[in-house]
Every structure is written in C-alpha cells, then in structure tokens.
Amino acid sequence: AVLEGILSRPGELAGLQRATILANKGLCLEGLGRLPEALGCLDEALAIQHDAGIAQLREEIEISMLTANAVKTAGQGQYEEAAQLFHESVLRDTAGSLCWLFNEGLMLNRLKRFDEATRIFEEVYKKDPENTQVYRLLGNNLLMGKRWAEAVPILRAAVRFDNEKDQASLYNLGVALMNSEDREGARQIFEDVVSRDPEHMKA
Asked: Where are the TPR repeats (predicted)?
C-alpha cells in the first residue's frame, strides 16, 4: 500500500526513483506468489531504466513460472508438454538444471521414449552420482535395451542405495547377471529374491 501511494504521485518521482520503487514492488509481489503482476512491475521498471539487477530478477521470476508450470503440467498427466517445459527449464535454469533434466527423463519414460530417457538418465548419473533414484531408473532402462553388462553395476548400486529392499531392482540385477553369462551370480541373486519373497513367481 505504501509503494502504491508513492507510485500514484508520478510527478514527484524522478525516472530512476520510480524504477527502483517499481522493482521493490515487484519483489513484494514475488514474495506473495503473484508472479505475473511482479513481471509487469519489473517490465515497467526496465522500460524506465535498464538495470542488470532488475533484468536478472525478471529472468529468475520467469524461470520460477516456467518450472512451476512444468511441475503442474506433469501432475496433470500431460507428459508430452511437461517434457518440453522441463527441457526449456534445463536450458534456462543453470542452477537447477540437473533437477529439471531428471524430470525430463521421467516424462520421457512415461511416454515410453526409453532411448531418449536413458540418455538423460546416463547424463544425470554422471553429473550427480548422489541422485539415488537415477540408478533404479537407468538400470531398468538399460535392461530393457538389453545392455546387460552396463546394467549390472547400476542395478547393484540401486539395490545398495535402497538398503536391499528394492525387490524389483534385485530381480533385475539377477536378469542382467544371467544374460551377462554370470550364471552363479544370477543364481545367488534369485535365491536372495525368493528368500525375501517366497511368492516371487519370476524368480
């Protein structure tokens, strides 16, 4: 309300002062989650006085809107559009790019575009080895692609990170070992699967 009162008296403000107040109003609106209105204020401020700080803030708000829209779209099951939005987020948000890249891979998996998803999961795995979720997803995709030998260490890591509670990854590890000609290793894994779940039909 204070900023609105000041802005309502344009004759009393020099250009730079008005731009600064508009930028501050934009910051307040961002804090309230009113992002489109915040962008409007920042655009008005930039039209008066170009400032690198204001331009950077505007870019950050645009990215926030983009990523929020990507998450919302994914939640609505619109995976094709969400994949595109996450891809754009990767290109624009360098700080959070690995997070958005991983989510793009998830969307591609949902769309059964497994080769593309696998390439993304491989990139995430190399750049962010602390992302424990990627091991299970990458391992499963490598298995579907019959890349048995490559799947083995990834699935071993998936089982280890999940404290050996991930029965699906444990079974898939057995499949990968069997197809990698490690029959004894596969037998031990399948016995482990059955000992944990006697009704596991595939093992």
From this structure: 98-131, 167-200
Residues 80 and 130: their CA atoms lie apart, in Å, by: 27
pLDDT single digits (tens) 86-105: 999 999 988 889 999 999 99
For the segment 118-142, what is each residue's pLDDT rounded down to a tens digit? 999 999 999 999 998 999 999 999 9
User: Which residues of the chain have a pLDDT value below 70?
Assistant: 1-15, 163-166, 199-203
CA distances from 28 to 2, 14, 31 (A): 12, 21, 5
Could you tell me if residue 128 is left (phi over 0), alpha (psi between -120 and 50 degrees) or otherwise beta?
A: beta
Instruction: Pick 9-110's CATH classification: 2.30.30.240, 1.10.490.10, 3.40.50.2300, 1.25.40.10.
Output: 1.25.40.10
Alpha carbon of 92 to those of 11, 16, 101, 131: distances in Å?
Answer: 38, 29, 11, 21
Torsion angle (degrees, nearest 10) of CA 57, 58, 59, 60: 50
The pTM score is 0.80
